[in-house]
Amino acid sequence: MDLSRSTRNLTLDIVRVTEAAALASGRWMGRGEKEKADDAAVEAMRMVLSTMAMDGVIVIGEGEKDNAPMLYNGERVGNGTPPELDVAVDPIDGTRPLAFGRTNSIATVSIAPRGTMFDPGPFVYMDKIAVGPQAKGKINIDDSIPENLNAIAKALGKPVKDLTTIVLDRPRHDDLVAEIRKIGARIRLIPDGDVAAALMTAMPDTGIDVLIGIGGTPEGVLAACALRAMGGEIQGKLYARDEDELRRGNEAGYDFDKVLTMDDLVSSEDVFFAATGITDGELLKGVKYYGAGARTESLVVRGLTGTVRRIEATHMIDKLHELRAIKY
Question: Which pTM does this prediction carry?
């Protein structure tokens, strides 16, 4: 692709998609209805995606892992006109935090030119390490935890004891957590939401320096789209949950030992990423409803320019209902 010729700026188009998902699912905060919240976000997202002037194909879909409603892999979205785009979605990154009224639940979408996003097929887990711009080029997922943390600390100009790592709170990470504690770094354990966690590494005011551990493969691709635009870095390796998954992956031509770099996960600079807060968090404020309206906060990044925008929007629910049959 000729990067001297920028494509149409789709920033406002995709943020409308994440805003719709956040507004529709935010009503379910704390109600313990994980699948109903997901259903609301998916349907709102699908409806707004269908209005976009693009010929989009869902490469990173949503639903298989959690038995939830789907924007399925291979689904066509948009009105069918150019440009031809790959689309990655996570209508709710952090369904459990939303269902139980906790922090850092967001709606996310990314788009890039057709054929440039990594397609993980049915393999939904990935071992990851992600950092912000200052530590870009200093990580290697094949290195040990002490080697990586020491390299990151050196790049950031502070001792390892002042590093803050963010890790999904899962039994599979018990050994990882013990190793991080042994070297003396600080740990932030989170219940869900590793797209938001990866983005925090590129936002200095969050206090997060590095994401480490096994999380979702779709979330890894979405994070790569955002971090590519924000100047950070993520590396990953597909993770097989058992011998049968490893065998099926090898038979399908997937290499579980291959380090997936930024170029593997999304090979184009011409990438857009948007996230809208559903519940309050370090990254974004959640949806606030009042009277006949609501307020949202979103983060939108464009790869070609490296522009990062924060958009605070006020929405009049009655007017939105006149335009679309979305239940906000």
Answer: 0.90
